[in-house]
Amino acid sequence: MKIAVLPGDGIGPEIVAEAVKVLEALNLGLEMQTAPVGGAGYEAEGHPLPPATLKLAQEADAILFGAVGDWKYDTLDRPLRPEQAILGLRKALGLFANFRPAICYKELTHASSLKPELVAGLDILIIRELTGDIYFGQPRGRRSAPDGHFPGAEEAFDTMRYTRPEIERIAHVAFQAAQKRSKRVTSVDKANVLETFQLWKDVVTEVGKQYPDVALDHMYVDNAAMQLVKEPKRFDVVVTGNMFGDILSDEASMLTGSIGMLPSASLNDRKQGLYEPSHGSAPDIAGKGIANPLATILSAAMMLRFSLNQEAAAQRIEAAVQKVLAKGLRTADIYSEGTTKVSTREMGDAVVRALAEV
Ligand code: NAI
Ligand code: MG
């Protein structure tokens, strides 16, 4: 089991170190190799995704990724900016299925901005298609408007596209994920207005017939945005396109208290995956030792589950995290009166100790 460890920038190295510590404590014989990526890749090799880093990632069973980016790289040409590393890895490895579980831990119910009763016990899974949609559709560009209300004015345009096979494969991923959970899928679209999402709805409905044990319903994205804050527990698995998924998954992340708690996985059809916290490199708190490492530690648990076939070890990590929260240990982002404030490293150490108790 080969793992490429790519810590990246900002708090990336601090939080990844804690996840690596937890993985090592499990004694699974994982072969972990570290390489620079993002701004760190640019500093070391002149490129955010150096060829040696890409090769290491391609040859690995899974990638444990921290975060990339820092304001100091804002003036670089777009292809050299740290964020290009993550786009390059998604593209090179064909990582089309993004899993973002939004779980509200019992101990953090009061950290959510919603009423406790709305989020208590929340456990939903947003599955976002990651390689298609308006983010990559051609043609795109700028031109002089050929028609419309302001002919001749400067105009920008993007193209929303999905092919049937792209929708089919993400639909299968969603239905199979639902089979392991409470067997409900909500497909989110905008079929009332967009042809792309009429095809989406048609194809998801067809694929759904192969999973008679899973209940499927469809929801327009505007209503889904509303329902996520009105009654989030009505959802189980939510599957949607790249842009709607980008927005809804960030919205859902806020239900759970802190972005520092949220793991994510991006998978291809060979079960190779990239695992990273949902947050960014948090340059505002980098180097202070106060970042919450739990999103990254929980991402490592997802890695064991989805790419390495180590379900028992994944559950041990998740149980250890729960135990540490139950003991009242909190990094600054989830701290509240009556709990114990700990550093990034102390949190990682506590999870390692808790592993012995679960
Ligand atoms: P961010 O997620 O890095 O930070 C947002 C806020 O959340 C900040 O106040 C930060 O201190 C806090 N925060 C984030 N993670 C935390 C943690 N583990 N513990 C405690 N607090 C935490 O988003 P922001 O500020 O918009 O972006 C910063 C940089 O990260 C940018 O360069 C951006 O491009 C990059 N970024 C990278 C991503 C990736 O590597 N996949 C994803 C999102 C942003
Ligand atoms: Mg986002």
Automatic annotation (TrEMBL):
Catalytic activity, as annotated: (2R,3S)-3-isopropylmalate + NAD(+) = 4-methyl-2-oxopentanoate + CO2 + NADH
Top-tier EC class: oxidoreductase
UniProt binding sites for NAD(+): G280, S281, A282, P283, D284, I285, A286, G287, K288, G289, I290, A291, N292
PROSITE patterns documented for this protein: IDH_IMDH (PS00470)
Any one GO MF annotation of this record: 3-isopropylmalate dehydrogenase activity
Stored SUPFAM superfamilies: Isocitrate/Isopropylmalate dehydrogenase-like
Record's keyword annotation contains Kinase: no
The name this protein goes by in its record: 3-isopropylmalate dehydrogenase
Protein's organism: Comamonas terrae
Species classification: Bacteria, Pseudomonadati, Pseudomonadota, Betaproteobacteria, Burkholderiales
Gene symbol of the encoding locus: leuB
